[in-house]
């Protein structure tokens, strides 16, 4: 039953045709068959942010929801498979660890696997190796191998989890094609003004530079950092998190492919931030995310170019941003999805996930013209909490460092933390406890990989880790490690898998 005076939404307007706009359009295109018009306005003149190439496994759910054939998607976007992220030089210069997707080992009688591993390590009776040795995605990544997981839960291969690296422009084009096939109407034009209802203050139409006006009942702001609707028109304030995440600029440049196709993203810590390396089928995406308070633009650009493995395919492009988010992501009849709502730097490749999260929650709470304030508040509550949870996970990487070789790392190592992260760290520091909050994106396995990878050793472990006699624990760990190693060794290489299933057509590399 609707609230008094409210009815069905019949006109949805999406402003912006970047990754956020076309993901939203593809998801909402299913409404068209039910008589809802979905219009997307974008401006070629303005263009898109054009980066955003690494993803996390939740994207598979989005693809499934849209009925996308995965091999066709990989070919169309020149994608590769991603089993995790390798972090180099984050704890100390020369150190490296992997944050893999998937799980570590197998829990025993309700005791988390990492507790058994910690107990074995503490016993001094034989080196259990690194926690990554017990995660199939990590071992396969190190060996440069890939296969899709098995659907059989008894198989070790069922524990593998993966995501993609793809070309952001090709991804938007792929989704545009899907959305247009399903009846989404694309309008080329530049929005120059936003009309609002004088009483309610909600948005009624957007005005284009050529004089056209596009009216609607529900407006999705996918206008990128400009935040034309939520920020400019509805004046929802932005809260900056720059004191925790000081990086505010990036240089990005593609380079020629060289060497084997690694099935993981690389994030290398640098003097005033970090550099990404994202392998695609036709090129490698590279960037340096840095704090402009700690390094000047030219020095950051030089560091990026000096660190490339292959020849640069063009001039580096600069991007500017501030970490943070709008205080509400849904206001009146407008929802901001993508960069218009907030930005967290790409260290854990979470922006596209947050777009997806915004879309699925919008679908769950799809409004009528009454725009229930209770539902809007619920949307804001869960989305804002998710932003904070992701923020905390990213801050952890910066803070948990022993580096003091530059003012940037000195700042990160000594900064005060958000309370939510501080209490997570305290729980970990005692008996290595990790709990997943409701709706939290990152699993305990992710936290464990990064906490141990960043060198935060707990003082002790769960007393229940003595669930197995010591000798049996050692045999169990050795067995798990061996099974994982053999399974990874039997997989095809990443290149072989792609060549066999989903090689992209030859493309211009830039
Ligand atoms: C350096 C960097 C690296 C990143 N790497 C990753 C990554 O690896 N993984 C990840 O998940 N995310 C990453 N992101 C984030 C990711 O790029 C974005 O989340 C994603 O591209 C979505 O952007 P968007 O669609 O919100 O905005 P945009 O791509 O900026 O699109 C905005 C759209 O709005 C339109 N528009 C703007 N103003 C007007 C107007 N007046 N009239 C009409 N149209 C208008 C534009 O034309 C465009 O179509 C990265 C971001 C940055 C800055």
TrEMBL record:
Coiled coil: none annotated. 7-chloro-L-tryptophan binds at residue 82. FAD binds at residues 17-20, 191, 339, 352. It comes from the Bacteria. Pfam families: Trp_halogenase. L-tryptophan binds at residue 348. The active site is at 82. GO terms for molecular function: monooxygenase activity; nucleotide binding. Keywords: FAD, Flavoprotein, Nucleotide-binding. InterPro entries: FAD/NAD-bd_sf, Flavin-dep_Halogenase_NPB, Flavin_halogenase, Trp_halogen. PANTHER family: FAD-BINDING PROTEIN (PTHR43747), FLAVIN-DEPENDENT TRYPTOPHAN HALOGENASE (PTHR43747:SF4). This is Tryptophan 7-halogenase. It comes from Sphingomonas glacialis. The lineage of its organism: Bacteria, Pseudomonadati, Pseudomonadota, Alphaproteobacteria, Sphingomonadales.
């Amino acid at each position: 039953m609707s609230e008094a005076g409210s009815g069905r939404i019949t006109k949805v307007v999406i402003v912006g045709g970047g990754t956020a706009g076309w993901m939203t359009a593809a998801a909402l295109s299913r409404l068209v068959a039910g008589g809802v018009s979905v219009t997307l306005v974008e401006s070629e003149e303005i263009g898109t942010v054009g980066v955003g190439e690494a993803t996390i496994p939740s994207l598979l759910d989005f693809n499934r929801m849209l009925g996308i054939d995965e091999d066709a998607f990989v070919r169309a976007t020149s994608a590769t498979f991603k089993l995790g992220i390798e972090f180099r030089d984050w704890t100390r210069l020369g150190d490296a660890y992997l944050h893999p997707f998937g799980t570590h080992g197998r829990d025993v009688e309700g005791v988390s696997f990492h507790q058994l591993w910690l107990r074995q390590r503490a016993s001094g009776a034989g080196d259990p190796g690194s926690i990554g040795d017990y995660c199939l995605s990590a071992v396969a990544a190190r060996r440069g191998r890939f296969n899709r997981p098995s659907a059989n839960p008894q198989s070790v291969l069922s524990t593998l989890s993966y995501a993609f690296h793809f070309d952001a422009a090709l991804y938007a084009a792929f989704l545009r094609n899907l959305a247009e096939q399903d009846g989404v109407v694309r309008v080329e034009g530049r929005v120059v003004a936003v009309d609002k209802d004088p009483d309610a203050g909600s948005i009624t139409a957007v005005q284009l530079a050529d004089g056209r006006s596009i009216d609607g009942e529900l407006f999705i702001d996918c206008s990128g950092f400009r935040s034309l609707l939520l920020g400019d028109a509805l004046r929802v304030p932005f809260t900056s998190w720059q004191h925790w995440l000081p990086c505010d600029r990036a240089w990005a440049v593609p380079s020629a492919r060289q060497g084997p196709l690694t099935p993981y993203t690389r994030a290398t810590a640098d003097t005033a931030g970090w550099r990404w390396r994202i392998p695609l089928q036709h090129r490698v995406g590279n960037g340096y995310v840095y704090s402009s308070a700690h390094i000047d633009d030219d020095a950051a650009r030089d560091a990026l170019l000096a660190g490339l493995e292959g020849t640069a395919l063009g001039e580096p492009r600069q991007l500017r941003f501030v970490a943070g988010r709008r205080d509400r992501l849904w206001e009146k009849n407008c929802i901001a999805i993508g960069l218009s709502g907030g930005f967290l730097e790409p260290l854990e490749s979470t922006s596209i996930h947050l777009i997806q999260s915004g879309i699925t929650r919008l679908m769950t709470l799809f409004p009528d013209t009454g725009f229930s304030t209770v539902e809007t508040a619920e949307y804001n509550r869960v989305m804002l909490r998710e932003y904070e949870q992701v923020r905390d996970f990213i801050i952890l990487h910066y803070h948990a460092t022993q580096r003091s070789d530059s003012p940037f790392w000195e700042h990160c190592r000594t900064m005060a933390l958000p309370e939510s992260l501080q209490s997570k760290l305290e729980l970990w520091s005692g008996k290595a406890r990790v709990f997943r909050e409701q709706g939290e994106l990152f699993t305990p396995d992710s936290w464990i990989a990064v906490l141990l990878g960043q060198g935060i050793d707990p003082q002790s472990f769960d007393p229940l880790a003595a669930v197995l006699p010591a000798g049996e624990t050692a045999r169990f760990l050795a067995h798990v490690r061996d099974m994982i190693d053999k399974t990874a060794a039997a997989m095809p290489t990443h290149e072989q898998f792609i060549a066999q299933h989903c090689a992209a057509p030859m493309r211009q590399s830039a």
